[in-house]
Amino acid sequence: MAESGQALCVVNTRRDAFELWNVLHRNLPESEQHSLFHLSSWMCAQNRFDLLGDERAIDEDTIRALLKRGSPCRVVSTQLIETGVDVDFPRVYRALAPLDSIVQAAGRCNREGRLTDELGQPALGEVILFTPEESRLPPGIYQTATGITSTLLQQINEQQLAADHQLFERYFTQLYQYADTDAKALQELRAGFNFRTVAREAKVITDDTLPVIVPYKDGKKSDGVKLVREIRDKGREKFSKYDLRRLQRYMVNLRSRDFLLLQSLEQVRELFPNWELYVLAEGFYDKRFGVILHQRSEEDFIL
Which residue pairs from 31-35 have beta carbons closer than 8 angstroms and sit at least 24 positions apart in sequence? Predict the structure, then answer.
């Protein structure tokens, strides 16, 4: 990837993204280190938005502007870039993952059909699927789906992967054989009109996290520290839904144990007294990587 002028690499865990970024940073010439980016859910939405940038702001060193100019641009990301992020790379690397995730990553390769060969004719982008030396995967259905994908890929060639419309049918048929689509018996609860229980149990994402406002600022337009100061100065009585919407751009979901650790170190404080809305201390956020915690366990790097 270091030899590729413009490339995206999508990995399965935040640890992999963090470690790969560091390896690439050490191996890139100093003149190109500014064009290496890391994206993960440890970063607040505003931070990721600023790094992606706008290709119309052609003079800025953001991801989209560098891609537009044809300048070196290498991005290491978790799977968050696979949905809702419009970027176009000539080469995409994807760690072995569920088949639908692989296809989503491939959708970031030559997305707008701009690539041409030496004769000026339309050319194809390149998607490279690889298996990391240390296979770290999110648990549960993601891990199961990756195993099914690995088996399917051994049974087909590149042309079938690109053109076999029955491949996804085979993939999902096998996946649903292993996945319990109603582990909480929600259909039975609905049939019994137990809607309150259904509302409590019907969670698409079940995790033990708490949102924290992070002190992200890019030195230009985005400044979460200034925003928190303004809202605190205005006072709790004047806090509005509009203020909450602005703060959400600067929030990161922390695992409960990480939150409790930071709380014990007095590094998270309430936005207002007796409010369950917390602000992270400035020393624990880096705009290149997001929230920084020491002595993280391996499962902290999932997603």
Answer: 32/72, 34/61, 35/61, 35/66, 35/71, 35/72, 35/73, 35/74
The pLDDT-based confidence of 301 (bands split at 50, 70, 90) is very low
Q: Mapped to the 3 state alphabet, what secondary structure does the chain carry? A: CCCCCEEEEECCEHHHHHHHHHHHHHHCCHHHHHHEEEECCCCCHHHHHHHHCCCCCCCCCCHHHHHHHCCCEEEEECHHHHCCCCCCECEEEEECCCHHHHHHHHCCECCCCCCECCCCCECCCEEEEECCCCCCCCCCHHHHHHHHHHHHHCCCCHHHHHHCCCHHHHHHHHHHHHCCCCCCCHHHHHHCCCHHHHHHHCCCCCCCEEEEECCCECCCCCEHHHHHHHHHHHCHHHCCHHHHHHHHCCEEEEEHHHHHHHHHCCCEEECCCCCCCEEECHHHEECCCEECCCCCCHHHHEC
Residue entry with tokens 């400044």: 223
Distance of CA 136 to the CA centre of its chain: 16
Ordered structural domains, the chain, with CATH? 6-136 (3.40.50.300), 209-300 (no CATH)
Does the pLDDT at position 245 exceed 90?
yes
Q: What is the CA radius of gyration of the chain?
A: 22
pTM of the model: 0.85
- Both tokens of 48, joined, read 């990721």
- Tell me the per-residue pLDDT of 107-158, one tens digit each, with 9 for 90 and over: 999 998 888 888 889 998 999 999 988 878 888 889 999 999 999 999 988 8
Which tens digit of pLDDT belongs to each residue from 182-233? 566 667 767 766 666 656 656 555 567 899 999 999 877 789 999 999 999 9
Which residue type does 58 have?
I
